[in-house]
């Protein structure tokens, strides 16, 4: 099946061979814009079959409408764009909205565009490296995944960790079972960077309703109030970005905004080091964002630009071989 799909990439689909239209649903207009940009780039690279209508339909604003409501809204979008003609189409409808709290490296640009270790990935010692550049000398542990990243020669990554969208050009040991993902954000018309870091076992969907219960939240195995104390922060409702009572790791404003990707990675790893060694690391003086806020401020263009730079460099390296 993979060989059949590879043969279709960039090729013109014959009538009746595939679908007349592929329709992706998105959670909101911002996510829909990110989807359209990525579809355009994939079509430009010849990674999708040609001759098919690729469409994106954002769910209407307001309360979540679920897959059923999203399906009805998608049908309305088809009718608005094609009139009665769409009733003769074969349509592939993919519900791809949502912010993927179980896989936050896919939250900013959408899980429908998540890299998969299929086709032509590079495997190294039981790890999976996808669309990334690794300098000779770096050490990647068993079962770890790296995507859309630059990893320097003095980086040692533990086992069963995930690194996404990051640039790590300094000497560092990243612990096992670590999730690390850098996000470009635009604040006051300036592009800056924030790196999400969690333990792979941390529950980003868990939330509590009162500050007295935040001890139930765990960050790299430590209670959340203990982490806040190490970082020189106090537990308060202002710490959380949500307007309701969802107090959790997803809405906790704890990640520093930095001027470069590398600096943001360094800061977030120092937060982890502080917790693992029970040593203070003060976050005072930094603007701090939650994952929820990062998605509101995300700069899709800059993230896709970084991915394209890596893609172009990989293509250039292959031409030299």
UniProtKB/TrEMBL annotation:
<feature type="domain" description="GDP-fucose pyrophosphorylase">
    <location>
        <begin position="125"/>
        <end position="260"/>
    </location>
</feature>
<protein>
    <submittedName>
        <fullName>Fucose-1-phosphate guanylyltransferase</fullName>
    </submittedName>
</protein>
<feature type="domain" description="GDP-fucose pyrophosphorylase">
    <location>
        <begin position="83"/>
        <end position="120"/>
    </location>
</feature>
<dbReference type="Pfam" id="PF07959">
    <property type="entry name" value="Fucose_pyrophosphorylase"/>
</dbReference>
<dbReference type="GO" id="GO:0042350">
    <property type="term" value="P:GDP-L-fucose biosynthetic process"/>
</dbReference>
<dbReference type="InterPro" id="IPR011004">
    <property type="entry name" value="Trimer_LpxA-like_sf"/>
</dbReference>
<dbReference type="GO" id="GO:0016772">
    <property type="term" value="F:transferase activity, transferring phosphorus-containing groups"/>
</dbReference>
<keyword id="KW-0808">Transferase</keyword>
<dbReference type="InterPro" id="IPR012887">
    <property type="entry name" value="GDP_fucose_pyrophosphorylase"/>
</dbReference>
<keyword id="KW-0547">Nucleotide-binding</keyword>
<dbReference type="GO" id="GO:0000166">
    <property type="term" value="F:nucleotide binding"/>
</dbReference>
């Amino acid at each position: 099946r993979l060989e059949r799909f590879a043969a279709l990439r960039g090729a013109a689909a014959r009538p009746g061979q595939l679908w007349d239209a592929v329709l992706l649903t998105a959670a909101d207009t911002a996510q829909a814009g990110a989807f359209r940009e990525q579809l355009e780039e994939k079509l430009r690279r010849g990674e999708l079959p040609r001759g098919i209508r690729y469409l994106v339909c954002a769910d209407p604003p307001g309360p979540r409408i679920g897959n059923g409501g999203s399906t009805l809204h998608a049908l309305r979008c088809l009718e608005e764009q094609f009139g009665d003609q769409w009733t003769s189409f074969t349509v592939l409808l993919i519900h791809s909205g949502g912010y993927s709290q179980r896989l936050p490296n896919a939250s900013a640009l959408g899980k429908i565009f998540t890299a998969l270790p299929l086709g032509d990935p590079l495997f190294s010692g039981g790890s999976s490296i996808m669309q990334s550049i690794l300098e000779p000398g770096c050490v990647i542990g068993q079962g770890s995944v790296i995507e859309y990243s630059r990893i320097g020669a003095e980086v040692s990554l533990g086992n069963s960790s995930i690194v996404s969208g990051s640039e790590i050009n300094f000497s560092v040991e990243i612990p096992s079972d670590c999730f690390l993902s850098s996000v470009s954000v635009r604040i006051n018309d300036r592009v800056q960077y924030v790196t999400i870091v969690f333990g792979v076992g941390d529950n980003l969907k868990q939330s509590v309703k009162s500050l007295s219960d935040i001890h139930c939240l765990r960050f790299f195995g430590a209670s959340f109030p203990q982490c806040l104390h190490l970082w020189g922060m106090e537990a308060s409702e202002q710490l959380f970005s949500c307007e309701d009572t969802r107090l959790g790791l997803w809405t906790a404003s704890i990640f520093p905004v930095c001027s470069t990707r590398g600096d943001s990675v360094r800061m977030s790893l120092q937060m982890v080091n502080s917790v693992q060694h029970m040593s203070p690391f003060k976050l005072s003086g930094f603007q701090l964002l939650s994952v929820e806020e990062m998605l509101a401020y995300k700069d899709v263009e800059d993230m896709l630009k970084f991915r394209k730079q890596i893609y172009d460099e990989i293509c250039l390296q292959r031409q030299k071989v």
